[in-house]
Amino acid sequence: MVTAGMAGRQCGIGANTNTSWGWFADRIAEFQEFLFLWAERQRVRRALARMDAHLLKDIGLTPGEAENEIQKPFWRP
Question: Which part of the chain is the YjiS-like domain (predicted)?
């Protein structure tokens, strides 16, 4: 009988990360998540930079708040 936990291990989900390859794969996945997060922050900040005061008001931001967000580097939340 295959349980849900066993099925996950067969697919690599929840695999044992004590091996050097498992640890390495986990670090690569974490780094990839950071890259996607950083790209999303940059995309949002560029979009804010293109918005006029009317659009900023619609989303609940003042021009000053938007400018503060726009000026942040991509790695800062």
Answer: 37-67
